[in-house]
Write a structure and sequence with these properties.
The protein has 16 helices and 26 strands. By secondary structure, it is α/β, with parallel strands linked by helices. The longest helix is centred in the first third of the chain and has 17 residues.
Length: 518
């Protein structure tokens, strides 16, 4: 490898090489009965990088993926990085039209996909991408991903990679219905993942879950942190509470990352007491606050630390951590303290930074900020007004300097002349013992302008009326915050990363109060 390639380099692919050099026989990946050492993982990443370069791809070309979690997917991700190419992860759950738009927008040279996601659309995908690779062993007549790893060339690719070179284009999850391509450089991922080792209390001896989709920024940032440190990663296909308990017991998992609703399903499952879960020492959650009942049950019955991590694709996570020592000492939608690499401030609409307990937009600075939006300089500039990255989130710092999330600016409900934070209503809804998940939105109303409206999913086997839930809300909320209507539903529209799509509910139920005002 030439000097210019390695001198002062900050590159995602080097993470795996360095750990493999220190701990070659350490187990990197467990996937069912398959075990992959760091040495073998690094070699496979190099093999795949050479395959891509031998196709004639050049630094900066894009390689897209439509994949669920698998060891092959991890090889692809870090092989793409080693080759100096740009990874474009597509959410398998979006429509074909959205997939084809993204592939055309980024001019993908190669598409890697799980067989289950490519079936029935092979010809259409082939017409967009010159090269198609499939993960799986079925009947699709195309190059199998595993065949790319048969070469004996395991040398580190000689590619000159700069820290500000674009490493990834991740499209926003679409909670607003308008996904944008976020340009992320090597520096952002590399430094954020290093910070996560510290902020998430990781230890080299940890055995960690890979449960959340790795095409999402949060899980990917954690995977990079795991590989920095030499943690063993256990790939878990899909979420089923009892299956997860069995895996925790079998593999002696110590560190877990999941959504609050997953922890609720896990902790309140009838088989919870059947399994030895004593290996768990640290449970990270994200996307939403944890209700206090679940949090206390998790801390007391698992005997481990819980923490909340926050961030966004545009500001590679985690940017803020609500740490274990604060979990039961602070009540409410706390995001905690800034990570060691992130400046966080509260700003008003005129660019003035606000003091403690003053509500404004949460803004960031740090090496983990995006390079910009793909083909959208206007939106990029809008997010960088006054020299800070604008998150679109409202919040404030409390008297102890901990960040409190108020709401997304677009989700704040304006009802009868009052501002109602949807997250505050949601916390009360979820605290009702029979509720599994809930969301609050503002819907058009002739009298209230926007009526606070709740959508609730009950726990399996539980029964409750809307009057029960409204009465519970009246005990814990001000009169203007209590939902005008509660709709008990079987499920809520979500992205595959667990974010509830409030825009879908707003569109579907926008006429709810037209004929039956409350």
């Amino acid at each position: 490898m030439s000097e210019i390639t390695i001198l002062n380099r900050v590159a995602i692919g080097d993470i795996v090489r360095r750990t493999a050099a220190k701990s070659p026989e350490k187990m990197a990946i467990i996937s069912g009965e398959k075990r992959i050492s760091y040495k073998d993982f690094n070699n496979d990443c190099n093999r795949f990088a050479h395959y891509l370069l031998d196709l004639g791809l050049e630094k900066g070309d894009t390689v897209a993926t439509i994949c669920g979690n698998s060891w092959q997917f991890l090889v692809a991700i870090f092989g793409i990085a080693k080759a100096g190419l740009v990874w474009v992860p597509l959410n398998p759950g979006v429509s074909f039209n959205e997939k084809s738009f993204i592939l055309s927008e980024v001019q993908a040279k190669v598409l890697i996909g799980d067989e289950v996601f490519l079936q029935g659309k092979k010809e259409e995908f082939s017409s967009i991408c010159p090269e198609l690779l499939v993960i799986g062993s079925g009947a699709l007549e195309t190059e199998k991903f595993e065949n790319t790893l048969k070469t004996n060339n395991t040398a580190e690719p000689e590619v000159n990679i700069g820290d500000r070179d674009i490493a990834q284009i991740m499209f926003t999850s679409g909670t607003t219905g308008t996904p944008k391509g976020v340009l992320i450089n090597h520096q952002a991922v590399f430094i954020a993942s290093l910070a996560n080792i510290i902020e998430a209390g990781l230890e080299k001896k940890d055995i960690a879950t890979l449960l959340m989709p790795v095409f999402h920024c949060a899980q990917h940032a954690l995977v990079a942190a795991f590989f920095h440190l030499g943690v063993t990663v256990v790939i878990i296909q899909g979420f089923e509470p009892e299956s997860l308990m069995k895996t925790v017991e079998k593999e002696k998992i110590t560190w877990m990352f999941a959504l609050p609703m997953m922890y609720r399903a896990f902790l309140y499952h009838p088989s919870f007491k059947k399994y030895n879960l004593s290996s768990l020492r640290y449970c990270l959650y994200a996307m939403a606050p944890m209700d206090r009942n679940t949090l206390e049950k998790g801390i007391n019955e698992l005997g481990c630390d819980f923490a909340l991590g926050s961030g966004q694709t545009e500001m590679y996570p985690a940017t803020c951590v609500f740490k274990p020592e604060d979990q039961l000492n602070k009540s409410g939608p706390y995001w905690g303290v800034p990570s060691i690499i992130t400046d966080i401030a509260i700003m008003d609409e005129n660019g003035i930074l606000l003091g403690k307990k003053e509500v404004g937009e949460i803004v960031h600075r740090g090496p983990n900020v995006m390079a910009g939006y793909l083909n959208n300089p206007e939106e990029t500039n809008r997010t960088r007004q006054f020299g800070w990255h604008h998150t679109g989130d409202l919040g404030y710092f409390d008297e102890d300097g901990l960040l409190v999330f108020v709401d997304r600016k677009k989700d704040m409900i304006k009802s009868g002349g009052e501002n109602v934070a949807s997250i505050q209503v949601e916390q009360v809804l979820i605290s009702y013992p029979k509720v599994l998940n809930a969301v609050a939105v503002g819907l058009p109303h002739e009298r209230w302008i926007e009526a606070v409206t709740a959508f609730v999913v009950l726990k399996p086997g539980e029964e409750a009326t809307k009057e029960d839930i409204i009465n519970h809300c009246k005990e814990h909320l001000g009169s203007f915050q209590v939902p005008k209507e509660v709709l008990i539903v079987s499920e809520l529209p979500q992205t595959t990363t667990g974010k509830i799509q409030k825009h879908v509910l707003r569109e579907k139920y926008q006429s709810l109060y037209s004929n039956h005002p409350v």
